[in-house]
Amino acid sequence: MGSSNLIGIDSGKKNHVKKSARSAPSSKDVYLALLVKLYRFLARRTDSKFNKVVLRRLFMSRINRPPLSVSRIARYLKNNEGKTAVVVGTVTDDIRLLEVPKLSIAALRVTASARARILAAGGEILTFDQLALRAPTGKGTVLLRGTKNSREAVKHFGAAGVPGSSVKPYVRSKGRKFERARGRRSSRGYKN
């Protein structure tokens, strides 16, 4: 049987699959647009994968740019002495960290209390344009990002109250009278 008989049969492949990844930030922030312009240039003109990753992260939504605390950065930089931590997102303070070490951080945003503690410890905070001048290829840097699934909303994803699930239910308040019967004790149906 020749291949001419197979005309009109769909190959099963999609002929046009739209790329869903962002090619520009959806934010109207003019300063972010300038950073994108800078890192588009660096990603194109250098062989560095670092610049391509930073550019891609600059496009991301806020949920995909989770915050990172000072304590976590300090932990990551413990084995990387003299390197600059690069966070495409917000750096937050952590009051559980009693002594902030001397850190070098480049971030989109640093909270006021985190900024005060980092600078008081003799550290430095860079913007991404300053980082581009200092490390145009990302040499001597550690690229970090926060945990995406630490958001409160993620704890509620799935079906709460189903046997074997550990999903957090949306409850008015946590007490004796709220969701303490079925699924919570063996005498009422089942215990999860």
What is the compact description of this entry?
The chain is an alpha/beta fold.
Sheet of most strands: 5 strands, parallel
> Which H/E pattern describes the elements?
HHEHEEHEHEH
Strand content: 5-15%
Number of helical runs?
Answer: 6
**What overall form do the CA principal axes indicate?**
flat
**Total beta strands:** 5
User: First CA to last CA: what distance?
Assistant: 60 Å
Regarding quaternary structure, how should these chains be classified?
A: single chain
The radius of gyration computed from the alpha-carbon positions, rounded to a whole number of angstroms, is 24 Å
Instruction: Give the fraction of residues assigned to helices.
Output: 25-40%
Mean pLDDT: 92
SSE class: alpha/beta
In the predicted model, the low-confidence regions spanning at least 5 consecutive residues are none
How would you describe what is shown here?
This protein has six helices and five strands. The chain is α/β, with parallel strands linked by helices. Helix 1 (30-45) packs antiparallel against helix 2. The longest helix has 16 residues, at 30-45.
